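Before the break, one more example. Copy the sequence into your notebook; we will annotate it together after we see the structure.
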Amino acid sequence: MTPTELAGEFPQDDDIVYLNHAAVAPWPARAATAAGAFARENIHRGAADYPAWLRCEQLLRRQIRDLVNAPGTDEIALVKNTSEALSFVAHGLQWQSGENVVISNLEFPSNRIVWESLARHGVELRIADVAGSADPEAAMIAQLDARTRLLAVSSVQFGTGLRMDLPRLGAACRARDVLFCVDAIQSIGALQFDVQACAADFAMADGHKWMLGPEGLGLFFVRNEVMDQLQLNEFGWHMVEEHGNFDRTDWEVARSARRFECGSGNLLGTHVLSASLSLLLEVGMDKVEQGVLENRNYLAGKLAALPGVEVLSPTPVDRQSGILTFRSNRLENTTLFQGLKDRGVICAQRGGGVRFAAHFYQQQALLDRAVELAAEVLNTGA
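Here is what the structure looks like once it is written out:
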């Protein structure tokens, strides 16, 4: 894809600098085109071509399979969001009182609250001090014992962008017969992600961040060998094996991960997300990751050169992600964030500072503008 073609996919308004892909991302133009085409089809033809919609759904499953290197599409469920998928795991497993779950102390609330809710089943939640450790994985592994049922971790921590060594954690879990659950929302679409290489039993992510898709549709990977360990808590016409036979009165649970999709899917979202993923796969996730990290490091260098600015995100190459968090000793974080927001820099206040999250397609001139506006805020104090 040429630079001109790529620029045409992201015709963002000139009055903003969009650095919030770790929250909600802008769509590429092809996603908007897909949404418009689907809407027009609904206006003029209704569901007359419904089989074609289902073919798009199957395409999306294949795209997700390729994006995360899943063995097959039968291990991919299309879900509403990451929290729903996490709940399928947390409240699908049959817990014994006294068992425990290990997480880190840097997790987004979605990957903490769901495990805290298991207290009613007598499940202990162990929170490893990853923030204060020079070896985050060792801190988590140290919490594992004979009563540990599952370790849950974000592939990239939302606050500072700390990138976890997933293969190391996955290997430790496999060696101890502990289930490994990965919240991959800050990785998929920005970094290469491989469910087989990291030995994940479960992985989930919304489509509206680095995957450049809509809210309300995400992925849930479930390894075939552990799928039957999850008891279902949602039921409907779509999650049965023979889901097209409406006259059949007996039923069996779908053998694939479709068992986690109880009813009709989000077909508008399916068309949009499929279009967005087609862009990422066309570019190639190796090149996407390269662009994301180059932009991250460019911003880090420019921001670190500003007086009084401290970059909070990890510096080792293997710890870097698309997230760059920084703060100033001259302004409170809230003031700095508000000043940037007032100047059209779309970012977030996270991880003890201000969080920038640039994607691969953004040019250095745009990043320079963000740094210039940050300098302006620091110089004026507002």
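The CA atoms of residues 73 and 229 lie 19 Å apart. The chain is about 40% helix and 15% strand. Try to locate both features in your own notes.
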